[in-house]
Design a protein that fits this description.
- This protein is mostly beta strands.
- It has 2 domains: 39 residues, no CATH class; 187 residues, Single-stranded right-handed beta-helix, Pectin lyase-like (Pectate Lyase C-like, 3 Solenoid), CATH 2.160.20.10.
- Helix content is 10%, strand content 46%.
- The chain has a 16-stranded parallel sheet that branches. The protein has an 8-stranded parallel sheet with strand order 4-7-10-13-15-17-20-23.
- The protein is globular.
Length: 262
């Protein structure tokens, strides 16, 4: 009987521990340059890295940057927001990807938000933001630079299992091999809108798109000092909606379709 009671109590304790662990995820967490990933990621006890905070942040929650710091590479597997307001939200990587977005079986409404980030590949990084799977991704008010490793690209949109909609706004892409790469596969769609985006000093293309499932829309964008503004493959489409400025580029592009402003 004592063994039975002990077993029941132990099972109950384990179940309770599991519930506590599951409920430990907060809808809002914090990171700090002086934080620790052993902390609960609260405002008063912030984490050190985005990777440390994401496991303690609930789906559709938000990671906030409390003060300036470098918060490391992260793989995002659930809809979430990473927000830095008025402080340095740095991600510095060498020879790898900085932020990979790869949600598991996302719904069209499952959105990842990135705002106010300074993402630096220090000349050897692979991709600043690599989008593999998501319903939607919004990148706002960020700087993505220095991704010049093999196939280096600022923003890589390469969905293979779902359609994805991407909005990039008020952001600068500079000193990468390619600024924005759009290459869906498996018959899926990648719709990318660039609004008030500056793309400069890319050794290959400001924008490169592949396959009929790739559509890029540019509005109020600036492309300067690139080898080529746009390079398209296999019936992909890049549309200029209006108020774009292209200057001092070696080539304009292979295909550039102007549309009336919408």
């Amino acid at each position: 009987m004592k063994k039975l009671i002990g077993s029941v109590l132990l099972t109950g304790a384990l179940l309770l521990a599991g519930l506590v662990s599951a409920n430990a995820q907060a809808t809002r967490t914090w990171v700090s340059g002086t934080g620790s990933d052993s902390n609960p990621c609260s405002n008063t006890a912030p984490c050190k890295t985005f990777a440390g905070a994401i496991s303690k942040t609930a789906a559709k929650g938000e990671i906030n940057v409390l003060d300036a710091g470098g918060f490391g590479a992260v793989t995002i597997t659930k809809p979430i927001a990473i927000i830095s307001e008025s402080v340095e939200g740095g991600v510095l990587v060498s020879g790898t990807n900085a932020i990979v977005i790869n949600l598991t079986a996302p719904l069209p409404t499952d959105t990842v938000y990135l705002r106010g980030l300074n993402i630096d590949g220090v000349g050897t990084g692979l991709a600043g933001v690599k989008i593999v799977s998501a319903g939607a991704v919004h990148i706002n008010n960020s700087l993505i630079r220095g991704f010049k490793g093999s196939g280096g690209v600022g923003i890589s949109v390469v969905p293979s299992a779902v359609d994805v909609n991407v909005l990039v706004s008020d952001t600068r892409l500079t000193d990468n091999i390619t600024g924005v790469l759009v290459q869906p596969s498996g018959g899926h769609l990648a719709n990318v809108t660039l609004d008030h985006v500056t793309m400069d000093n890319h050794s290959a293309n400001a924008i490169e798109s592949f396959t009929a499932g790739a559509q890029v829309f540019m509005n109020n964008c600036v492309a300067t000092g690139n080898f080529r503004v746009v390079f398209t493959h296999s019936s992909s489409v890049v549309n200029t909606l209006g108020n774009n400025v292209f200057t001092s580029n070696t080539h304009a592009g292979s295909v550039l379709t102007p549309l009336a402003p919408q």
